[in-house]
Design goal:
mainly alpha, three-stranded mixed sheet, Serine Threonine Protein Phosphatase 5, Tetratricopeptide repeat, single chain
Length: 390
């Protein structure tokens, strides 16, 4: 199938995808220029959210009913360090696990996740506030080390090779299908956020959704597969009508309510994706202005992973967005104090000082805001993007 979209831009090109080829013929004013701009923005937003733009992607592991990889206590420890943002240690542990299980696609994806998330954190792409609206589209991230890029792509190739080999032997292998969907989702995050290659990111994002929809067809109890499917449903359900029509023609549909229901189901499960689902739900609920539920998820995660300053900082962001300014101010100050006491090591907890400054500035407390902004430079190794903001 070739879906043709015509716009008044004076050129044309063709792109392929899992559901066919798209030919963009830019010489007929069928879609007004303003609507085309909205289309591009909406598709870009679709990419980031469909990839768990919360920046913590699906990393399923060890489910008691037989879904996922065999249980390994070493993996549990690696995830503990991962969610507490001790990425170096998590990567080392996932490397050792992969050495023990070189043909395990789950093990490959776990290492891929840790390497990718470490890079996104180091390049300043881990603040969920950046995704609360569409302004992130024009944001240029700090460059990724070429060696890290090659390692990510190498792990993607390794994972895909294992998954394709397993699916060749059994096309209904739900674990192989699930793993391939995760690998595709991870690569979509990489191509979208690091390479800014939107068409490639979209192709892999849709492939991930199709894989996980197939998993649910074969095994409706494979709850972790509802992570990507639920995210897609929510995002497509919230697209503008004109974009939703184009998505429907390409075989993609969605319901925001169904998407939130799926994600809530994952969040309540015992799978490792419960953490990821809570993060994604927080992002979506923030856009829906359902702040109380979102704060609940972040409080849960902050208590479980106390060394992850992003969770508690997000509590403050949500309190501020909800208009609970005294509570937000207290939470920002708590994050800062925790950082000064060494509870976050050298992580970039100065984000809380910047958030505090923004809050005080909104209250017309200019002197207090200036004092908060000055705190940013006092943090160890402050993030250059945050320094530039102040």
């Amino acid at each position: 199938m070739v879906l043709t979209l015509a716009v008044d831009f004076g050129t044309s090109f063709t792109r392929s995808s899992p559901f066919g080829s798209f030919k963009l013929v830019c010489n007929q004013p069928v879609i007004p220029r303003t609507n085309y701009s909205k289309l591009v923005q909406s598709v870009c937003f679709l990419l980031l959210l469909c990839l768990v733009a919360s920046c913590i992607p699906a990393v399923s592991q060890s489910i008691s009913d037989g879904h996922g990889a065999p249980h390994d206590p070493q993996t549990d420890a690696a995830f503990e360090h991962f969610y507490n943002m001790d990425y170096d240690r998590a990567i080392q542990e996932f490397e050792r696990i992969l050495e023990k299980h070189p043909t395990d696609a789950f093990a490959v994806n776990h290492l891929l996740t840790a390497v990718l998330m470490h890079d996104l954190y180091e390049t300043g792409a881990m603040n969920t506030g950046d995704y609360a609206n569409d302004s992130f589209i024009g944001r240029t991230p700090r460059p990724t080390d070429p060696k890290v890029k090659e390692r990510i792509k190498g792990l993607v190739r390794r994972g895909e090779a294992l998954e394709e080999q397993q699916l060749k032997a059994n096309s209904k292998d739900v674990n192989a299908l699930y793993c391939r969907g995760v690998t595709r989702a991870q690569f979509s995050v990489y191509t979208g956020l690091v390479e800014r290659a939107w068409f490639s990111a979209l192709r892999n994002a849709v492939g991930a959704r199709h894989d996980h929809e197939r998993v649910l067809e074969l095994d409706p109890k494979y709850v972790d597969a509802k992570m990507v499917v639920g995210t897609h449903n929510y995002v497509i359900g919230r697209l503008p009508w004109s974009v939703k029509v184009a998505a429907a023609l390409a075989g993609l549909s969605g319901s925001a309510e169904k998407g939130l229901d799926y994600l809530r189901e994952v969040a309540k499960s015992d799978g490792e994706n419960a953490v990821d689902a809570k993060v994604v739900l927080t992002l979506f609920l923030r856009r829906e202005q359902q702040y109380d539920e979102a704060v609940g998820y972040m409080n849960d995660l902050s208590a479980k992973y106390p060394r992850n300053h992003l969770f508690l900082t997000e509590v403050a962001n949500l309190q501020r967005a909800a208009g609970h300014l005294p509570e937000a101010e207290a939470t920002y100050r708590k994050v800062w104090q925790n950082g000064r006491e060494g509870k976050y090591g050298t992580l970039h907890y100065e984000l809380a000082a910047w958030g505090l400054g923004e809050l005080l500035r909104s209250k017309k407390d200019i002197a207090g805001a200036a004092e908060a902004y000055e705190l940013v430079s006092q943090a160890p190794n402050p993030d250059p993007d945050i320094l530039q903001k102040v």
